[in-house]
Amino acid sequence: MKRLYEAARVLKRIHGQSELARAINASPQTIHNWQERGISKQGMLKAQEVIGCSALWLETGSGPMSLNVLCNSSQLFSKTSQIPLIRPDQALKVNSTAAAPALGDPLGWLFTHSNLSSRAYALEVSGNSMQPVFQEGDWIILDPMAVPEPGDFVVAKCGEKKELIFRKYRPKGLDNSGKMTFELVPLNEDFPSLRSDILPIEIIGTLIEHRIFTKKHLIAS
Which of 21, 113, 136, 215 has its CA 20 to 30 A from that of 159? Predict the structure, then answer.
C-alpha cells in the first residue's frame, strides 16, 4: 500500500486516503481495507489506468514505477546524480539561500536520476508524524532550491530552538506585508499543524524523492 501512496503522490500529486479514493473512484473503506489486507488485483489495474503506475511495480516493487519511464540505460546513466545522506544536526545547517554551508562528512551517498540542484541532500525519516505514507527509516531526497507548491512535502527549521520538522506544505495567503504565510501539516492527525504567522519557520528542502524499505537498513559508521 505504501507503493500506491508513493505513486499517487509522485505521478499525480495525490495525497492521503481521501484524495486517493476520489481519484480512483473508490470508497474510503476500500482504501482502508487495502491498507489492512493489501491491494486487490482489480485495485492495482485501476490504479495503473488512473495514476499511470505499473501494476507489477505495485505488487512486487520490481521494474519502473511509471509506465512512461524511459528505459534507455545510457540516457539514465547520463542523468545520475550523487546525493549526500546527512544527519539531522547537519540538516540544521542547511539554509534556503544560494549560499551552501559546509555540512561535514555525510552518512553515505544516494544515487538518483532526478533533476536536482547541487544543494540537494537526503535524510532518514524519524518519528511517526507523517504516517501512513512516510515510515520511520524511509529515506527522503530534498532540494532547498526547489520552491514548494501547495501539497508538496517539506523539511523546515521551526521555532526559536530550530527544531527540524517534516510536514505537508499548505499556503494560507498573503499577510499585511505581502509575504506568503503557510501551514505545515502532519499526515498523522495526532500531531499539531504549525503556522508561519505564529512561529518562525524556514523551509530548507522540498521533497523530490521518497525511498521506501520493506526491511530495516543499516548505515555503517
Answer: 136
Judged by DSSP in three states, 50 sits in: helix
Non-local (6+) Cβ contacts of 39 within 8 A are 1, 4, 47, 58, 59
Of the ranges 8-22, 119-133, 160-174, which one carries the lowest mean pLDDT score? 8-22
Residue (of 97, 101, 123) closest to 110 by Cα position: 123
The residues pairing with 111 across neighbouring beta strands, listed in sequence order, are: 82
Torsion of CA 28, 31, 35, 38, to 10 degrees: 150
Residue 195 grid coordinates: 503556522
User: What's the Cα-to-Cα distance from 9 to each of 15, 20, 125, 202, rounded to whole Å?
Assistant: 6, 9, 17, 23
Question: SS in 3 state form for 170-183?
Answer: EEEEECCCCCEEEE
The answer to whether 21 touches 31, Cβ cutoff 8 Å, is yes
Burial of 154 (0-12, 13-18, 19+ CB in 10 A): buried
The whole model's pTM is what?
0.62
